[in-house]
Amino acid sequence: MFFSMASKSFNAVSLIRKKRDGEVLSREEISYLIEQYTKDKLPDYQVSAFLMAAFLRDLNEDEAAALTHAMLHSGRVLDLGDIPGKKVDKHSTGGVGDKLSLILAPIVASYDVPVPMISGRGLGHTGGTLDKMESIPGFTVDISLDRYRQILSKCKMVMAGQTEDIAPADKRLYALRDVTATVESIPLIAGSIMSKKLAEGIDALVLDVKFGSGAFMKTQQDAKELAQTLVAIGEDFGKQTIAYLTNMEQPIGNKVGNWLEVEEAMAALQGNGPDDVMEVTHMLAGTMITMGGKAQSIEQGVAMSREAVANGQAFDKWLQLTAEQGGDTEVLRNPQKYEHAKYSFTVEAPASGYIAKIDAYKIGIASLELGAGRKTKEDDVDPSAGIELKRKTGAKVKKGETLATGFTNNKELIEAAVEVLDDAFSIKTDAIDQTAMITHRVDSQGIHEI
Ligand code: URA
Q1: pLDDT digits (tens, 9 = 90+) for 310-345
Q2: Are 269 and 393 in the same domain?
Q3: What is the pLDDT of residues 267-294, one digit of tens each?
Q4: Mutation choice for ligand 1 from 96, 126, 186, 189, CB with most ligand atoms inside 8 A
């Protein structure tokens, strides 16, 4: 797995052509592209072409490892050895309504398992943890590495954005992939996630690999492949890595959009989280508590996770962290004080029956249309834009009943969002079976059904 960075020089056009024609790039060639891009010696348009070629032609295992290695070493690799405890982080492959990091990080940290979390921004139709954090007035995710260590030592958790020092190649590639339709590729996602996570100084990692309409992996089979790739890379780098396959056919929870999701996460930390959110949260948090050495088994870890919510220690931890990172804790305790979006509208059931499907991808796109995400790298997000689902899949509804409410600060965005939302719900006359939220665990021993 370990090899040195590129020292030879190559012709970028030849490398793009080589990948475009389906040939395999060498480690040196991949390192060269990543290094040059990070140093600003390759323009976005050439790297976009490379990404599209990689997307269409795929990267093999060696190329994916080379990409991860090059991105990891494009910046600093942190050593958190001086902070006591096994450092454990979680990462999701991206979903709609996925606010789980905000709930599970304080649960785990409340047991003194350090959680050094470096997150990304919204990508494609999915939301990003950083955008959610920044919707909390005053909360800053742009912190120096010294400050990152200080906060982690004091609070046992930290929520930061990627600094220029941490996997800078991923930061730039991530933003470029977002706007060049090159996100949904197993090796590109694996390289992106693992380079960032390995640079953080973690000892162990839990991954939430989502499948379904709102995920980058549309099928469970692709999600399995991604999970296996991620676990193999993590274990190869000497970090204990466990992945869960979780369902993202419909949005997780009831709220989608930056502040809306913070609001739901705060309710969850106070014992009022939706069942689907809490089921996955407790499994991931319980696994992290176990990896951090504070529980003997995942079952015990899950019980401890539930207890941390019930007794309020997780919410207290979140408030401590928020205050430390400059955020307003008052508005977290009293969300009605938040400046909510100026405009809202509702989507009604076109017929009576059972909700057979709420297309998470379309909800994600509608939320983005309302201003909660970015269409270009430069766009600002509207923190209070988004969608609240009033009913979820399986619910019995009457014609005309409200299915969802949309929020935005820009009235002109409503029409496009409504068009997408009208198509997002499908109603059938027969009751439907609920699908499982967590289907498999993948670890160094293989894949296990849950
Ligand atoms: N999350 C990441 O960090 N990177 C990706 O490419 C997709 C999801």
Answers
A1: 999 999 999 999 999 999 999 999 999 999 999 999
A2: no
A3: 999 999 999 999 999 999 999 999 999 9
A4: 189
**Per-position DSSP letters for 340-377, written without gaps between them:** --SEEEEEE-SSSEEEEEE-HHHHHHHHIIIIIS-SST
Residues 315 and 353 in one domain: no
217-242 pLDDT, tens per residue? 999 999 999 999 999 999 988 999 99
Cβ–ligand 1 distance for 128 under 6 Å, the answer no
Are residues 302 and 356 part of one domain? no
Furthest CA-CA distance within the chain: 67
Cβ atoms within 10 Å of 142's Cβ, excluding its own:
12
Ligand 1 atom 7: the closest Cα is on which residue? 189
Please count the structural domains in the chain: 3
Asked if residue 232 and residue 157 are part of one domain, the reply reads yes
Neighbours of 154 (CB within 10 A): 12
Structural domain boundaries, residue 52 = 12-57
